[in-house]
Amino acid sequence: MTATVGIRVAEGEADLALVRAVRREVFVVEQNVPEELEYDEYDATSVHLLAVGADGAALGTGRLIFGEQALKLTGGVEGRVLLGRLAVVRAARGTGLGAELVRAIEAAAVERGAVELELHAQVQALGFYERLGYVAEGSVYEDAGIPHRTMTRVL
Questions:
Q1: Residue 1: is its pLDDT beyond 70?
Q2: Cα–Cα–Cα angle for 91, 93, 95, nearest 5°?
Q3: Exposed/middle/buried for residue 122 (C-beta within 10 Å: 0-12, 13-18, 19+)
Q4: pLDDT (0 to 100) of residue 3
Q5: How many other CB atoms sit within 10 Å of the CB of residue 6?
Q6: Strand pairing of 116-122 and 80-88?
Q7: Which residues have CB under 8 Å from 12's CB, separation 6+?
Q8: Which residues form a coiled coil (predicted)?
Q9: Domain annotation for the chain: domains and CATH numbers
Q10: Beta strand 47-52 with 116-122: parallel, antiparallel or unpaired?
Q11: β-bridge pairing 80-88 and 58-65
Q12: Contact, 118 vs 83, CB < 8 A?
């Protein structure tokens, strides 16, 4: 990836609009996820990471669910948080940006006291996450019509 891409915590309505635009492009348009499933009640309390190019264009995003919401979603595992909605626009794929976003989310998790991270990977992305140290557990399940598998990594 080039040094002209920056990753930051999304703050303010302008950043959140860019986050939503990336997720809409990748999940709703490309993968046909129903829009009403893409945006949920966890968006309001999550930490959203945003990758932008030198021109200000949004290139990728991901979110971190932590605290009480993470306890609820991970089955009550203390110290475990949830990475979700990782998305990189087509033009930025294959540049290493996805891995950089994962590492930035991991760093944000550690800052919030997390010791383990869980994610729900699309089956086609299992290899990507395995290369970053994540281990698949459990069986394949459907989410928004797409096969997924839970993965975890100790931070």
A1: no
A2: 110
A3: middle
A4: 57
A5: 12
A6: parallel
A7: none
A8: none
A9: 6-154 (3.40.630.30)
A10: unpaired
A11: antiparallel
A12: yes
Distance CA 76, CA 141 (A): 20
Spell out a b/e string for 41-61, using b for 16 or more CB atoms within 10 Å of the CB, else e: ebbeebbbbbbbbeeeebbbb
Place of tokens 């499933």: 37
The token pair at 25 is: 């492009």
To the nearest 10°, report the CA torsion of 7, 12, 18, 20.
Answer: 110
Distance CA(120)–CA(11), nearest Å, equals 25
The 10s digit of each residue's pLDDT in 15-39 is 999 999 999 999 999 999 999 889 9
Nearest to 108 by CA among 143, 155, 60: 155
**CA–CA gap between residue 87 and residue 64 (Å, rounded):** 13
User: Can you tell me the distance from the alpha carbon of 88 to that of 39, in angstroms, rounded to the nearest whole number?
Assistant: 17
Q: How many CB atoms lie within 10 A of CB 32?
A: 10
Q: pTM for the whole thing? A: 0.93
Mean pLDDT of the chain: 94
Which structure tokens are listed for 58? 């949004």
The secondary element (H helix, E strand) that includes residue 71 is: helix 67-73
